[in-house]
Design brief:
Largest sheet of chain A: 5 strands, antiparallel
Strand order of the largest sheet of chain A: 2-3-1-7-8
Radius of gyration of chain B: 20 Å
Number of helices of chain A: 26
Helix content of chain A: 40-55%
Order of helices and strands of chain B: HEHEEHEEEEEHEEHHHHH
Number of helices of chain B: 9
Distance between the termini of chain A: 51 Å
Helix content of chain B: 40-55%
Radius of gyration of chain A: 36 Å
Oligomer: heterodimer
Number of strands of chain A: 18
Strand content of chain B: 15-25%
Largest interface: A-B, 45 and 37 residues
C-alpha cells in the first residue's frame, strides 16, 4: 500500500466553484478507483484558489485479480449432435482467445451454455494511475468551463502545473502541454518559483513553509478566529455569514484579517444597504456592537501576511468610502420623491412579454389582494390597494438598480421616509416573504394578503401561458412561490379555498387570452401547490401513506389538508383505530365496485341489518356535523362505534344473495358507510 | 507617477513583450474590446499581440462632472495576447511592478468575473483584479467573438488607468489626477464631461438618432455584402454608440432594448464572418507555422 497525491495547479479558480469541484473530485476519484478494483483506505480533497488536491491513503499497489465469466452460445448451437464443436462454438473460443477445449458448459435457468472462465490478473497501480488521473482531471465538472491557447481541454481556468506522486515515486501525466513533474508552487506572491517535492509528507510541509494553508476547513476556521478577534479589538462582533466565510476562504491561500473604518456619517443610510455593499462588492465582514447596531467599520481578509498592512488597510478604506459614497448618493436621490411618484414609471418596465408591464402586474395585485383580504377578513380595501400600488415602486430606485437583493427592503424604508403608515410599509417588504427556505413569514394582514396575491399571480400567470417547471428547469422560481404559499398558510393558520383564489387570479389575465383554460390552469396550479404541501408534510415527519390518503380527497384548502393529515396520523396510534378499520374494511371491501349508496330500507329484513341501518342513520347526521366543523377525530371516533353493529351484520347475513333488490340495499348500506369514512381520507391507502 | 507616465510605462512594457503598440481607433466605442484590433483580430487562427489606449464612451455613466468615480468618457489600456501565453498572469503582474505596484506590499486578488457583450456576441471567462480591494483590471480569456468560437483563445487585459492613477497618486477624485505636472485630469476633461452629460441625457435628438441607427444598420449590411470588412465594421460601431445614446436618453423601453441589442449583434456576427473569410482568402499571412497554416487553410479549426 502507498499513498497517492495529485495536485492540479490552476490559475485562480472562482471561489463559488470550489465546494462543488472538491465534492466532485472526491466522488469521481472514489468511483474511478473502485472501477479500477484498487482497494484504498481513505480519500481526502483539499482546495485553494490555485490548486485542487486529491490525497488517497493506503492505495493498493496492484489491482485485485478478477474472475471473468463470459457466456457464449447455447450448447445446442455450439456443439453438434456428434459432440463436435460447430462454427459458432469455435468462433466464440477464438473471440475469447481460448482453445475450445478450455471452455466449459454451465446451466442458466435450465438452459446449457458455453462459458469462457478467465482470471484477469490485476495490473500494477503505478501503471494504471496515470490514465486514471488524467481521465479524472478531464471529467471534473464546473458551472462554467473554458478553453485556453490552442487547446481543446476545458477546465474552470487554465491548468498550469501537475504534480502526481504515488508513494515517493512521481507519476507521469500530461494534459495538453502540461507534463507532471515533482514540483509545486507556493503562494503567488510570498513564494518564488517551482519548489521540488521529495515525497507526500514533504509536499504538505513545503506548502506550509511557502504560505499556503491547504486544508480549506482549517483555513476557514483560522479566518473566522481572526475575524472575531479583529472585531473584538474594535469593540464589536462580526456578522455571522457562512456563505461569505466560505467564499473568503476560497479567495485566499494565507489569510490575515484586519479591521478598517469608515465615517459614521454613512450610518444615516439603512444598515442593509451598508452591509450589502460591504459583503457583495468587497467581501468584507460587517461589524455590530454588542447591542446589535452596525458599527462604522469592517473586517477584510488579505491574501498574505501582515507586512505593510497599513497601506493595504488604507486602500481598502478608500475603496469602501467610494462605494458608500455611491450608496449615500442613491439614498439621497431616491428619497427626494415619494414612492408614489417612482411608481409612475412602472408602466415602462416589462414584467414579462406576455404578462405585461409591472404596472399591469400591480393592477392585478390590487384586485387579488383585495379579494384575498376580504376572504380572510384581513386589512381593508384602501390599504391593500395602496400597498399593492406601491410594492413594486422601489424596483425603479437607483439603490435597487445597484443592489437588486434590496428589493422590498428599500421600498419599506422609502415608504416610512414619506410617512406611509407602518403596516403598509411593512407589507411592501412582506410581499416578497418568504424569500428562502427558513425565511420569516409576512405578519401583518396587509402583508399576508399581498404576499399571497404576489405568489398566486406569478404562478397562475405562468401556468396560464404554459410556463411550468420541469426537472431542474424553474427559471421563474415557481416552486419557491408555491412553497411560500404553503408555508404562509400553515404558519399563519389561514383558511383559504385555494381553488377559488386561483380562479380569481386567473380572471385577472383574461385580457391576454391565455392558451391554457381556466379549468386546466386552476387544476394544475392547485395540484402544483398540493405537491409542495406534500413535501412540507413529509419534512415535518408525517408518513407518506397518511398524506396520500388525505390528498386523494379533492381538497382545496391547505390548512384543512394539514388538519386531516395530523388527525389521521394521530388516529393511527389511537386505541379506536382497530374498531374503525374493521368498520371501514368490512364495508369497503364488499362495496368497492358498487356504485350507488342508495338504501331501499323497505326491503331490509334481517334484524341485524335493520339495526345497522338504524345506528348508521342516527350517526350519520352527527358525523356530518363533525366533518363540517373540521372535527375529524370526533368523526372517526363516532364511526368506530359502528363496529358491534357491523360485526353482527356480517355474522348474520350474506350480502351477495340472489334477491337483487335485497343485495342492492345491503351493498348500498355498506357503500354509504365506506363513503362516510372516506370523507376524511382514503383509508384504503393507509399502510400498516 | 503622473497619468502620462503611467501610459508611457505600459506602452514601453508591453512593447518590450512583443506587442505592437497600436493607437486608439477613430470611431466612438464603449470599450477597448470594440477596437477592430481586438474584436476582429481575436477571430481566426492567426497569432496577434497588441496594446493600445482606448477612449471609451458610456453615455449612461455621465454625472455632469460631479461624481468623483464615474465618467461617460474614460480611458482603457488594452492588451491582447493571442494565443494566451502560459505565463500570462506573471506578465501582467510584472506590468504592475513597472508602475511601482509591488504585489508583496499589497493585496492582489483575482476575483471571478465572467465578461459578456451581448451586442458583440462575445463572451469570456476571467477575473477582475483587485488591488487592496479596488478593481483595477479586467482579465478575460475570450471564448466567443461575434458568435464564433475563438481558436486559439486570446487573453485580454484591460486596465482601468484612471483608477490605477488615483491609487498611485493617492487621489479621491478622478478629476484630481495629475496628467502632467501642473495639468490635472479636470483641466483636460471636466468641461467635456459636463457638456456630454447634458447632451447624452437632455439634448440628443431622439428622432434623429433613431433614423441614424437605421441608416447605419443598412449601410453596415450593404458594405458587408461587398466584403469590405472594416468599413462595414465602422457602421456596426456607430450603431452600437447610437444605441447607447438612445439608451442614455431613456428612449428605449425594455422590450425594444432586446430588439436593438439583437440588431447590433446580428451586424457584429455578419462582419465577424466576413473577416474570417477574408483572412482565409489571404492565406492567414500572420500564421508563420506552415504546418498549422495548412491545417487551418484546409478547413480544420475555424
Amino acid at each position: 500500500m502507498q499513498d497517492l497525491l495529485l495536485e492540479i495547479g490552476v490559475e485562480e479558480i472562482p471561489s463559488a466553484y470550489m465546494p462543488g469541484a472538491l465534492q466532485a473530485l472526491a466522488d469521481l476519484a472514489g468511483q474511478k478507483i473502485n472501477e479500477a478494483r484498487l482497494p484504498y483506505s481513505k480519500i481526502t480533497v483539499y482546495g485553494t484558489p490555485r490548486r485542487l488536491v486529491l490525497f488517497v491513503q493506503g492505495l493498493a499497489e496492484a489491482q485485485e485479480d478478477a474472475a471473468i465469466e463470459n457466456r457464449g452460445p447455447k450448447k445446442s448451437i455450439a456443439i453438434d449432435p456428434q459432440g463436435q464443436p460447430t462454427k459458432a462454438g469455435l468462433g466464440f473460443a477464438r473471440g475469447q482467445g481460448m482453445d475450445f477445449s478450455e471452455l466449459v458448459i454451465q446451466g442458466v435457468e435450465g438452459i446449457e451454455y458455453l462459458f469462457a472462465l478467465k482470471r484477469d490478473k490485476g495490473k500494477e497501480s503505478r501503471k494504471l494511475l496515470p490514465d486514471l488521473l488524467q481521465s479524472l482531471i478531464q471529467a471534473l465538472p464546473f458551472p462554467k468551463s473554458m478553453r485556453w491557447a490552442y487547446f481543446n481541454t476545458r477546465f474552470a481556468r487554465p491548468i498550469r502545473w501537475l504534480l502526481a506522486l504515488y508513494g515517493d515515486q512521481p507519476l507521469d501525466l500530461q494534459i495538453e502541454n502540461i507534463k507532471s513533474s515533482p514540483v509545486t508552487y507556493g503562494h503567488r506572491f510570498l513564494s518564488n518559483g517551482p519548489q521540488p517535492v521529495k515525497d507526500i509528507q514533504h509536499y504538505f510541509a513545503l506548502l506550509e513553509e511557502h504560505f499556503v494553508i491547504l486544508d480549506q476547513d482549517r483555513r476557514q476556521a483560522l479566518i473566522w478566529d481572526q475575524v472575531r478577534q479583529a472585531a473584538a479589538a474594535a469593540g464589536g462582533e462580526p456578522m455571522e455569514n457562512p456563505d461569505l466565510l466560505e467564499e473568503v476562504a476560497f479567495l485566499v491561500e494565507y489569510p490575515t484579517a484586519f479591521y478598517g473604518a469608515f465615517s459614521s456619517s454613512y450610518l444615516t443610510v439603512p444598515p442593509e444597504v451598508l452591509t450589502t455593499s460591504m459583503i457583495e462588492h468587497q467581501r468584507y465582514f460587517p461589524v455590530f456592537s454588542p447591542e446589535g447596531h452596525l458599527l462604522p467599520g469592517f473586517i477584510a481578509v488579505r491574501n498574505g501576511t501582515d507586512y505593510n498592512l497599513d497601506e493595504v488597510r488604507a486602500g481598502n478604506q478608500r475603496v469602501l468610502k467610494a462605494r458608500l459614497e455611491d450608496a449615500l448618493f442613491f439614498w439621497n436621490e431616491d428619497t427626494k420623491e415619494p414612492l408614489e411618484q417612482m411608481a409612475g414609471g412602472l408602466k415602462n418596465v416589462l414584467f414579462h412579454e406576455r404578462l405585461g408591464s409591472l404596472q399591469d402586474k400591480v393592477e392585478r395585485l390590487k384586485k387579488l389582494a383585495v379579494f384575498l383580504g376580504a376572504t380572510m377578513g384581513m386589512s381593508d380595501k384602501n390599504r391593500l390597494e395602496r400597498a399593492a400600488g406601491l410594492c413594486k415602486a422601489d424596483l425603479l430606485s437607483a439603490m435597487v438598480y445597484e443592489f437588486p437583493e434590496l428589493q422590498g427592503i428599500m421600498g419599506r424604508y422609502y415608504a416610512l421616509q414619506h410617512g406611509e403608515e407602518t403596516e403598509l410599509a411593512e407589507a411592501i417588504l412582506e410581499h416578497y416573504l418568504p424569500r428562502f427556505a427558513a425565511d420569516e413569514l409576512p405578519a401583518t394582514g396587509t402583508g399576508i394578503s399581498l404576499s399571497l396575491a404576489e405568489k398566486l399571480d406569478n404562478l397562475v400567470g405562468c401556468f396560464a401561458i404554459g410556463i411550468k417547471p420541469s426537472g431542474s428547469q424553474d427559471p421563474y422560481a415557481l416552486r419557491r412561490q408555491a412553497l411560500g404559499i404553503v408555508n404562509i398558510i400553515l404558519g399563519r393558520s389561514l383558511d383559504l379555498d385555494l381553488k377559488e383564489c386561483i380562479a380569481a387570479a386567473y380572471d385577472n389575465f383574461s385580457a391576454i387570452q391565455p392558451e391554457n383554460s381556466r379549468e386546466d390552469t386552476t387544476r394544475e396550479v392547485l395540484d402544483f401547490i398540493l405537491q409542495r404541501l406534500r413535501g412540507v408534510l413529509l419534512d415535518r415527519g408525517f408518513s407518506y401513506d397518511v398524506i396520500d390518503a388525505v390528498l386523494q380527497r379533492a381538497l382545496r384548502d391547505v390548512r384543512d389538508v394539514y388538519v386531516r393529515v395530523k388527525t389521521v396520523q394521530d388516529f393511527k396510534q389511537s386505541t379506536r383505530l382497530q374498531d374503525f378499520m374493521v368498520v371501514y374494511n368490512r364495508a369497503h371491501n364488499l362495496s368497492r365496485k358498487w356504485e350507488s349508496p342508495l338504501i331501499d330500507e323497505t326491503v331490509l329484513e334481517d334484524p341485524s341489518e335493520i339495526e345497522l341501518n338504524r345506528t348508521f342513520q342516527s350517526l350519520k347526521k352527527d358525523v356530518t356535523d363533525s366533518l363540517d366543523k373540521a372535527l375529524y377525530s370526533q368523526a372517526l371516533e363516532k364511526l368506530s362505534t359502528l363496529r358491534p353493529a357491523v360485526d353482527l351484520f356480517f355474522n348474520s347475513v350474506m350480502v351477495m344473495v340472489e334477491n337483487q333488490e335485497l343485495k342492492a340495499a345491503r351493498l348500498g348500506l355498506l357503500k354509504s358507510i365506506a363513503e362516510l369514512c372516506n370523507q376524511v381520507a382514503d383509508f384504503g391507502k393507509l399502510v400498516f | 507617477m503622473n497619468f502620462q507616465d503611467l501610459i508611457l510605462g505600459l506602452q514601453k512594457y508591453w512593447g518590450q513583450q512583443g506587442c505592437i503598440i497600436q493607437q486608439p481607433y477613430d470611431v466612438e466605442k464603449g470599450a477597448g474590446t470594440m477596437n477592430p484590433a481586438t474584436f476582429l483580430r481575436a477571430l481566426g487562427p492567426e497569432p496577434w499581440k497588441v496594446a493600445y489606449v482606448e477612449p471609451s464612451r458610456r453615455p449612461t455613466d455621465g454625472r455632469y462632472g460631479e461624481n468623483p468615480n464615474r465618467l461617460q468618457h474614460y480611458y482603457q489600456y488594452q492588451v491582447i495576447l493571442k494565443p494566451s501565453p502560459d505565463n500570462v498572469i506573471d506578465l501582467y503582474l510584472n506590468s504592475l511592478k513597472e508602475l511601482g505596484i509591488d504585489p508583496q506590499k499589497h493585496d492582489i486578488r483575482f476575483v471571478e468575473d465572467n465578461w459578456e457583450s451581448p451586442t458583440l456576441g462575445a463572451w469570456g471567462l476571467g477575473w477582475e483584479v483587485w488591488l487592496d480591494g479596488m478593481e483595477i483590471t479586467q482579465f478575460t480569456y475570450f471564448q466567443q467573438c461575434g458568435g464564433f468560437d475563438c481558436y486559439p483563445v486570446c487573453a485580454e487585459i484591460t486596465y482601468g488607468i484612471e483608477r490605477i492613477a488615483m491609487y498611485i497618486q493617492n487621489k479621491e477624485s478622478v478629476y484630481d489626477i495629475q496628467w502632467v505636472d501642473g495639468i490635472s485630469y479636470a483641466d483636460v476633461h471636466h468641461q467635456t464631461e459636463v457638456d456630454y452629460s447634458h447632451y447624452n441625457f437632455e439634448a440628443a435628438d431622439v428622432a434623429a438618432l433613431t433614423t441614424m441607427f437605421t441608416i447605419c444598420e443598412k449601410e453596415a449590411i450593404n458594405v458587408a455584402s461587398l466584403h469590405l470588412v472594416q468599413p462595414a465594421y465602422d457602421y456596426v460601431l456607430k450603431c452600437s454608440h447610437l444605441f447607447n445614446l438612445l439608451d442614455a436618453r431613456g428612449a428605449i423601453s425594455v422590450t425594444e432594448r432586446t430588439g436593438y441589442i439583437g440588431r447590433v449583434r446580428n451586424l457584429a456576427r455578419l462582419v465577424a464572418g466576413e473577416y474570417l473569410a477574408q483572412r482565409k482568402n489571404l492565406g492567414y499571412p500572420l500564421l508563420k507555422d506552415e504546418g498549422l497554416r495548412q491545417q487551418f487553410l484546409n478547413g480544420e479549426g475555424v
